[in-house]
Each structure stands twice: as structure tokens, then as C-alpha cells.
Write a structure and sequence with these properties.
The chain is an alpha/beta fold. It has two domains: 308 residues, 3-Layer(bba) Sandwich (FAD/NAD(P)-binding domain); 59 residues, no CATH class. The protein is 36% helix and 27% strand. The strands form three sheets. Strands 1, 2, 8, 9, 10, 11, 17 and 18 form an eight-stranded mixed beta sheet that branches. A seven-stranded mixed beta sheet has the order 6-5-13-14-15-12-16. A three-stranded antiparallel beta sheet has the order 3-7-4. β10 and β11 form a beta hairpin. The radius of gyration is 21 Å and the shape is globular. The protein binds flavin-adenine dinucleotide (FAD).
Length: 374
């Protein structure tokens, strides 16, 4: 039987990042990936905050995303952003492959086309072999096998559909967001330009995301080139470790409910996982509890706030979106958004805007519906 210190299930960005860091510390690490290629199939818009660049460097970089245009259901829109690069667009396939390359060059074994079928204590069984391991990391995405094994659950997963399409943009550094009950119930639609001609166009919604994506494509007169489906966790897992196993990234639901973005929050949690696993393997800790306390202290609060904002957002109707976009279209407020806006910490700017202009919420049906919020 083969042996490893750490077996990581899933060669997504979070799994390979952990593999790279742990192998650099001298541990024997294996990553198991069910697909035959790292990064494929991709199901990501590739829009990352500059905070991600600070963790992994400029890998997969395509261009900065400096501005956003948010479209209300009535056709009006709000332009935010300026020349300051606060987010950037990556080629997710290259991004994932570069993290895998770093892991391999640090000494990790990456086993492609080898699906993990079963994990139990220190035994991991794949479609090809059985391994004896000391730690098992579930970085295996929304349908995580490791999450099920440790008896944890995600509150909810919503559907997301995305295409690559020809999209001629007058500003390739501007992302478009589409709101509305008929556009993306409970979430939103997006256009993320890759360059002046190609963009990723997607919709996440509580129902029929593909149907709503087709509507958006018709509205924008776009023809799809390649279709991608995925799921976005709304809310994080009730437990993220058990004895020698932990779950991280999408597997643990470490995703912002406001935007569906999971790379930054997953990486921040991965840093906690690396530390806790190192201490455990070196005998300084008896279990991986420190992992859970660590990620909760770093991003737990913001994930909870994002979930709260998402619950409010879900209750909004078209007239609320129209009114809010109209009210936000005020130079003083746009200045606040541009100064404090951070896609990883959306609550920071929301409270600032409300404090500056409390009337934004006034007279909106949402205020009444808020009182019924669970
Ligand atoms: C349509 C869409 C657009 C998105 N856009 C953005 C965005 O713009 N910015 C952003 O930050 N986030 C975005 N996200 C979220 C982001 O893609 C995820 O948060 C991120 O991929 C999570 O990384 P991960 O490594 O945890 O999981 P994943 O990337 O899902 O990787 C999990 C890996 O595990 C493998 N696996 C699963 N089970 C097994 C098994 N039993 N054995 C072996 N291998 C297994 C899978 O094949 C996969 O490769 C988007 C998500 C969707 C659906």
C-alpha cells in the first residue's frame, strides 16, 4: 500500500495551493483529481479581487477589471469604479494549472484521472489504488465526498450557467452586472470581458439558471461558444473538520453569498489549513480543530455578513432594484463606493453608504420585508 502524509481530494485551486505549501514544508503530499486535465472543465468567471494576487501572485492574469456597470431591470444603470485596479480577470484554466505546477515542483504528486471513491480514517481508496495517509483534505468542490464522510452539510447550493461568447465591449476593463426578477431570480447575471471581443456571460439563480442565461443572451444578442455549468454554495458547512480530515474551499461552502466568489475566501481558509495540518503532523495538536477556529476568525464574520446581505437581496423586487440604482446614482455615493468598495468585503461599503444616505432604504418595500427576515 502506498503512503502519504497528506492526501488532498480535488486539484482545484484550493487543493493544489495547499499541496504546494505543505510539500514545500517537506511533507509527502498527494493530490487526486478525477478529471484527466487540471483546470478542465472550468466553471468560473475568473474575476478575482486584488487580494488574491497578494496570496498567489500574478498567475493566469489577463487584465484588470477597474469598473462595473450595474443594470437595473428598468434599463437604467449605475457606473462605479475608476482607474484604480481593484479586481482582475484570470484565465481560470491557466490559473489552476500554474498552482498545480507549483505544487508539483515543490514535490507533491498529482494523480490525474484518479477519482477518490472512499475515505475512512487513514485509508483512502481511489479508482486505481488504496493509500494509507495521515491527513485527508477535502478540496473536492460542491459535491464533496469528504464533506459527506465527516457528516457535514451545506445549507444550499444554487445553479449557475455560463458561456463564452463574442461580446464587443467599448471598455474591456468594465464588468456588467444584471439585476432583476426576470433576469436572475435571487442572484444576478454577469458579463466579464476577456478582451475587446470575447466575454464570459453567466447567470446564477435559485431556479433554471440556464433558462435565464438564454434570456440574457437573447437580450444582449450574443451567441454562445462554450457552455459551462456549476453550483454556488450559499452558506458554509456546519462542520469543517473531523479528527484527521478537513474540508476547504467550495467543499466547505467558503464562498461569498453576495457574489458567488470563492477563490479568495477559499485561499484564506487554505492558509489556515496549511498551518493546522503542519502542527498536527508535527505532533503539536491532537486534531485539526485549530483550522476551523482560524478560518472562522479570518473570514467567518464576513461570510456571515455576506449571507445576511444576500438574504435581504433575495427579498428585493424589481421596483426595489430600480429605486436603489436610481438613488445610488449620486456622485457623493459613488465616491464612497469607489473609496471603500472591496468585492471580498462587501459589507464594509454597504454600511458606509447606508450611513451616509439612510434614505436609500426609506420607502422601499424591502424595509417592510426585512422585518420578516429569518
Ligand atoms: C459559473 C461560476 C462562476 C464563478 N465565477 C467566479 C469568479 O469570477 N470569481 C471567484 O472568485 N469565484 C468564482 N466562482 C467560484 C469558484 O469557481 C470556486 O469558488 C472555486 O473553483 C473553488 O475552488 P475549489 O478548489 O474549492 O473547488 P473546485 O474548483 O470545484 O475544484 C474541486 C476539484 O475536485 C475534483 N473532485 C471532486 N470530487 C473528486 C473526487 N471524488 N476525486 C477526485 N477529484 C474530485 C473536481 O474535479 C475539481 O477539479 C464561480 C463559480 C461558478 C459556478
Amino acid at each position: 500500500m502506498y503512503g502519504y502524509d497528506v492526501a488532498i481530494v480535488g486539484a482545484g485551486p484550493i487543493g493544489t495551493y495547499i499541496a504546494g505549501k505543505l510539500s514545500k514544508k517537506g511533507f509527502d503530499v498527494a493530490v487526486f483529481e478525477e478529471h484527466s486535465e487540471i483546470g478542465n472543465p472550468s466553471h468560473c468567471g475568473g474575476l478575482l479581487s486584488s487580494n488574491v494576487e497578494k496570496i498567489v501572485g500574478k498567475i493566469g492574469f489577463m487584465h484588470y477589471a477597474k469598473r462595473a456597470r450595474i443594470h437595473a431591470p428598468d434599463g437604467t444603470f449605475l457606473d462605479i469604479g475608476n482607474e484604480e485596479p481593484r479586481a482582475y480577470v484570470v484565465d481560470r484554466v491557466n490559473f489552476d494549472r500554474e498552482l498545480a505546477r507549483i505544487a508539483v515542483s515543490n514535490g507533491a504528486d498529482v494523480h490525474i484521472k484518479e477519482r477518490v471513491k472512499y475515505v475512512s480514517g487513514s485509508i483512502l481508496t481511489t479508482t486505481l489504488n488504496t493509500y494509507r495517509v495521515k491527513v485527508i483534505v477535502g478540496a473536492d468542490g460542491i459535491n464533496s465526498l469528504v464533506r459527506k464522510t465527516i457528516g457535514a452539510e451545506l445549507p444550499q447550493i444554487i445553479g449557475a450557467s455560463q458561456v463564452m461568447a463574442r461580446f464587443r465591449s467599448d471598455d474591456a476593463e468594465r464588468v456588467e452586472i444584471f439585476l432583476g426578477e426576470d433576469v436572475a431570480p435571487g442572484f444576478f447575471g454577469w458579463v466579464i470581458p476577456y478582451d475587446e471581443n470575447i466575454a464570459k456571460v453567466g447567470v446564477a439563480s435559485y431556479t433554471k439558471s440556464y433558462f435565464y442565461l438564454q434570456n440574457l443572451l437573447k437580450k444582449l444578442k450574443l451567441k454562445p461558444l462554450a457552455l459551462q455549468f456549476g453550483g454556488i454554495p450559499i452558506g458554509f458547512a456546519n462542520r469543517t473538520y473531523w479528527k484527521n480530515m478537513l474540508i476547504v474551499g467550495d467543499a466547505a461552502g467558503q464562498v461569498k453569498a453576495t457574489s458567488g466568489g470563492g477563490i479568495y475566501t477559499g485561499l484564506r481558509s487554505a492558509i489556515c489549513a496549511v498551518k493546522a495540518i503542519g502542527n498536527y503532523l508535527e505532533g503539536r495538536e491532537g486534531d485539526l480543530k485549530a483550522y476551523e477556529s482560524c478560518w472562522k476568525s479570518i473570514i467567518g464574520k464576513e461570510l456571515k455578513r455576506a449571507l445576511y446581505l444576500h438574504k435581504i437581496y433575495r427579498k428585493m423586487r424589481d421596483e426595489d432594484f430600480n429605486r436603489i440604482i436610481k438613488n445610488l446614482n449620486d456622485p457623493e455615493i459613488i465616491e464612497v463606493i469607489n473609496k471603500y468598495g472591496d468585492i471580498d468585503y462587501p459589507s464594509r461599503v454597504v454600511w458606509r453608504v447606508i450611513r451616509k444616505k439612510p434614505f436609500i432604504l426609506k420607502n422601499l418595500g424591502i424595509v417592510i420585508r426585512l422585518s420578516t427576515l429569518a
